[in-house]
Specification:
This protein is an alpha/beta fold and 388 residues long. It has helices at residues 14-26, 33-46, 57-67, 90-98, 117-123, 143-150, 204-214, 236-240, 254-285, 317-327, 357-365, 377-384, and strands at 50-54, 81-85, 102-106, 128-134, 156-160, 168-169, 172-173, 180-184, 197-201, 225-226, 230-231, 291-292, 304-309, 350-351, 366-370. A hairpin with a 2-residue loop joins β6 (168-169) and β7 (172-173). α2 (33-46) runs parallel beside α9 (254-285), α3 (57-67) packs across α7 (204-214) and α9 (254-285) packs across α12 (377-384). The two termini are 26 Å apart.
Length: 388
Amino acid sequence: MNSRFPLAVSTWGDEELDAMKKVIDSGIFTMGKNVNDFEQSFSKFIDSEYCVMVNSGSSANLLMIAALFFKKEKPLQRGDEVIVPAVSWSTSYFPLQQYGLKLRFVDIDIESLNFDLEQLEAAITPKTKLILAVNLLGNPNDFKTINEIIYGTDIILLEDNCESLGAIFQEKYAGTYGLMGSFSTFFSHHISTMEGGLIVTDNKEIYHILLTLRAHGWTRNLPHINEIVGEKSKDAFDESFRFVLPGYNVRPLELEGAIGLEQLKKLPSLISERRKNGINFQKSMEGHPDLMIQKEIGQSSWFGFSIVIRQSSSIARSQLNDRLLKLGFETRPIVSGDFSRKEVMKYFHFEVPFQMKNAEYIDNKGLFVGNHHFPMNEAIEKISQIKF
């Protein structure tokens, strides 16, 4: 689709192309030094102790859930209850189904598009083992309130931060509030390594589990002294095909690690420009008679611009979408809309304890358009001037 205002554009320059050429010239394409260096640089940037790169944000979510089944104290087991927001991407939910967990869906706040915090608190039962917080479209959750809600419990908090790299809540990066946080470096995200994802954690045991799960469930990538087998054999042959966990092969490529190193250098300026557009968008859309936008919590990294038809307006989303398409915008629903209504849910064990009127509303009345790392004055002006 050739749109005047696309959802995503490239953030690459000569630096990324040169980095790829160096990898190609080296002849080493499988996971190696570039991936390791990117992991180290990313963990330093995000202020997390450990980082593991994988082949996608979806795989990052998968390994986050899997890791909790293999910790020594087994904090998560099949049948356990997990609270999730009604709106997120499909692969936020699929690992939960694949590991036999029961989902309890909670409505979103109509303004922030993140957890309805009152419903979240009310949804917790003695069986709740995990809360998966999703920071939607660049906007961090209110982690102060979430931590107050789970204070004194054994409930684990995880973050799907795939859409919100660089978002900040109370001087701390989103993605670092939970036991683990996932990130995506797919083409349409804040930085791009073609495909790619990352998991961060401060827990050494989880870090070692992630290293094992990422590559075949073997010990080869573990340090000599580790939290999985204690001490590895000094004979590399003995450790070459030693399988200790039921893992995957979700390793990234050296090309992706090399690109990531260059993209990370640009990330502060990429986020800064997106935030400038976000400020402009908020000012331009303030008081619009028919349309409302996402309320910023903390400092959003403004993945995209959500547009929701006000309840007082009589216009249909199809009218809004047609108008945007004619103006040259590429559009999408707000992520999944209400995921509990998707056909795939017939394979899930789940419940909806309360009415989710806001998720249902944006399912019918919301959409989003792209934000980028360069000024979008013309696009924002066109949206603000839409009248019905």
